[in-house]
Amino acid sequence: MKSFVREDGAELRVLDGVSFEARDSGITCLLGPSGCGKSTLLNAIAGLEKLDQGKIEFQVSSLKFQGPEAPSNPNLEPETRNLKLGYVFQDPRLLNWKRVDGNMIFALKGMGIPRAEWAARLKKYIDLVGLGDFRRQYPLYLSGGMRQRLGLARALGIEPEVLLMDEPFSKLDQLTARKLRQDTLAICARLKQTALLVTHDVEEAAYMGDRIVIFSARPARIVEVVDNPLPLAERDLDEVDFIQFKKRLLNIVLKLMGQEDA
Questions:
Q1: Which of 62, 75, 138, 170 has its CA 20 to 30 A from that of 258?
Q2: Is domain 23-32+42-83+162-214+224-262 annotated with CATH 3.40.50?
Q3: DSSP code string of 151-220
């Protein structure tokens, strides 16, 4: 459970008992109206927000993982450990006084990655996001899309078990966002990356999500979980099958909004 205190002193509850199963080696989209608590949930998973009650736990394959805010418990099974998380923010949050490779090294060093691995990881992930010719450039001289690509490379460079993405395309122009969605989807598929993506864009959820978890307005609760019937190769924004699936998701969200208005 998670609540905030408003300026008038009233309690604003944003999360109240949320549990779902993400797609292993796939992208799970958290879809819901703006302000419903999706980003708060992602931040709680990352340990950036502290829950008022409850704890974050993950079950991945045969391993059980504690979230960053989970209390220490000596009775947990030996295989229990903290989950390695990468985070792509809505704003890239880059260090403007460090070059592209410097921003990558900052993340690698902070996560305790051995120095001997830095060079290989720099090349692999900077090239993977298409910034191989810009390693010595400062972020302020990069376009918005390129800065977000660097944010993605930085998160992937630590080789996380779960990649968290909080509306990473929402501040980009339509064409740049469309291209970056395509590339991010291809990269995650290539790496077999397990990822959680927060969005309130139905089309983005239909395109990016292997599984879509639909949230109500706050306090967030899960209304429905929908598996994408379209394999990655068949997700064409202009094709009838994709448009029909997008319409299916949209109808769920519109019906939910109508119920809440009533």
A1: 170
A2: yes
A3: HHHHHHHT--SEEEEESTTTTS-HHHHHHHHHHHHHHHHHHT--EEEEES-HHHHHHH-SEEEEE-SSSB
